[in-house]
Amino acid sequence: MTSDPLSALRAAAAERAALRAQERAEHHARRAARARPRRSTDELQEIARRGQAELGGSGIGADDEASAEEVVAWAVREFGDSIAVASSMSDAVLAHLVSQQSRWVDVLFLDTGYHFAETIGTRDAVEQTVDVTIVDVRPELTVAGQDSAYGKNLFARDAEACCRMRKVEPLRRALGGYEVWAAGVRRDDSPTRAKTPVVTFDEKNGLVKINPIAAWTYDDAVAYAAQHQVISNPLLDDGYPSIGCAPCTRRVAPGDDPRAGRWAGQDKTECGLHV
């Protein structure tokens, strides 16, 4: 008697999920066993300076600047497991890139409470398909709590304050447990990001920061995703080249600045994480 094909597929998927969960748990147990104290600010600053000399070549965007893979390899050598990847879940390109050299790396997802359903779906899909550990980073206040304390829809009246409470401060708290974090900032994102280095010391958060794909173009990221079958947020194909919180993000007309849909109509271009 032939078994139900759908049931067989579900059983196989459940088995794969269980195996992945076991591998992830075993990795984190080993990581905890070999954990060491976080190095001092002075030590981390010195490592960042060495990294700039080693990876930055003769300057930002120079021909001898290190590749994305070389930047990640340097970070893994220098920091071991003390690495975090920040992801907005526009895609899983950076998470996948780092996971190739640091399997089960922590990927920090800022769960602001205001995300598109597609973004949450992308987060869930990344957790199921990429060898990373998703860490949901949440604000101290729920959306309802913030509405009660500061009034409903703070984002419309004071976007800076909203971003600070729901993104900047939660990330700062989360990064306290790491020595380096990786961000997916690209120089072609906007004029404010045009001079992004591949490695720097993040004074605001007190640790080293790497931007492995700083030199990539949008097309480079798309090509990487296609080559490695990396998940992307479906909103990218629906007029949203830059995806943030739903109330503060709109579609962008073809040919417009990719970040024109972020905080449209306001004198604001960054949430504060990378400035």
TrEMBL record:
One GO cellular component term noted in the UniProt record for this chain: cytoplasm
InterPro entries cross-referenced by the UniProt entry: PAPS/APS_Rdtase, PAPS_reduct_dom, Rossmann-like_a/b/a_fold
Main localization category: cytoplasm
Pathway(s) this gene product operates in, as recorded in its UniProt entry: Sulfur metabolism; hydrogen sulfide biosynthesis; sulfite from sulfate
GO biological process terms held by the UniProt record: hydrogen sulfide biosynthetic process; sulfate assimilation, phosphoadenylyl sulfate reduction by phosphoadenylyl-sulfate reductase (thioredoxin)
Cofactor: [4Fe-4S] cluster
Reactions accelerated catalytically: [thioredoxin]-disulfide + sulfite + AMP + 2 H(+) = adenosine 5'-phosphosulfate + [thioredoxin]-dithiol
Pfam families: PAPS_reduct (PF01507)
Enzyme Commission no: 1.8.4.10
Alphabetical list of CDD domains matching this protein: PAPS_reductase (cd23945)
Basic residues composition-biased segments: 27-38
Active-site residues, Swiss-Prot/TrEMBL: C271
Subcellular location as annotated: Cytoplasm
Residue segments, region Disordered: 20-45
Residues engaged in binding [4Fe-4S] cluster: C162, C163, C245, C248
Family: Belongs to the PAPS reductase family. CysH subfamily.
HAMAP family, alphabetized: CysH (MF_00063)
Name of this protein: Adenosine 5'-phosphosulfate reductase
Species, as recorded: Paraoerskovia marina
Taxonomic classification: Bacteria, Bacillati, Actinomycetota, Actinomycetes, Micrococcales
Chain's gene name: cysH
